[in-house]
Specification:
This protein is 86% helix and 0% strand. It is mainly α and 195 residues long. The protein has a domain of 120 residues. Helix 1 runs antiparallel to helix 2 and helix 1 runs antiparallel to helix 4. It is rod-shaped and about 150 Å long. The relative contact order is 0.08.
Length: 195
């Protein structure tokens, strides 16, 4: 057989050194695996943190957009209601104004009332453009009537009475048309709630 100069003690030492070397190799290999896993976990945690931050940012953006949309809808609703109120009050406003303006050419009245209605319609109710044309036509008839009365320096009572009948006709048409517009605005507001 093989002759060996290795004694039993040497064999045990070699076996122990080999076992220790194998253990160290396995230890370092396992340590490298654990270190690699630890790095992977750190990277995953970093990615998770970034994903969470991005998700929160998107969530906040969506919440802000929803809030802005609700605020815009609320503002639009308020302006539509203001428009409806101005239309409802228009016939009475013109009646009060008519009595002042037929007596005094320089009577004080709200010269911007119709401009408010036009502005609200153009900003918040663009679908009502044709209706506004009709409303403006009725208002122009009223203004023409007042201008005709102002042509007379001292209009007589019978003349004013004859013009009053024309005014009542215009006012009645305005009342009907205002009610029609208010109904349309009401429907528009109701539809906002269902959209």
């Amino acid at each position: 057989m093989f002759e060996s100069n290795i004694s039993g003690l040497d064999t045990i030492i070699i076996a122990c050194v080999s076992a220790f070397g194998g253990y160290l190799g396995a230890y370092f290999k396992k340590s490298a695996e654990i270190s690699s896993m630890s790095d992977n976990i750190k990277e995953l945690m970093s990615q998770q943190r970034k994903i969470t931050e991005a998700t929160e940012s998107v969530k906040q953006d969506i919440e802000h957009q929803v809030w802005r949309k609700k605020e815009q809808e609320l503002l639009k609703r308020e302006k539509m209601e203001e428009f409806a109120i101005l239309c409802i009050e228009l016939p009475q406003k013109l009646s009060d104004e008519y009595s002042k303006r037929t007596i005094h050419k320089n009577a004080d009245y709200d010269r911007h009332y119709m401009k408010k209605i036009i502005l609200l319609q153009s900003l918040y109710l663009p679908k009502f453009a044709n209706d506004m044309d009709s409303l403006m036509s009725l208002h122009q008839r009223y203004e023409a009537l007042v201008a005709e009365i102002h042509k007379h320096t001292r209009p007589s009572l019978p003349y004013l009475e004859s013009k009053l009948a024309e005014f009542v006709k215009v006012r009645t048409e305005l009342e009907c048309f205002s009610a029609f517009i208010v109904g349309k605005v009401s429907t528009e507001i109701e539809n906002m709630g269902h959209a």
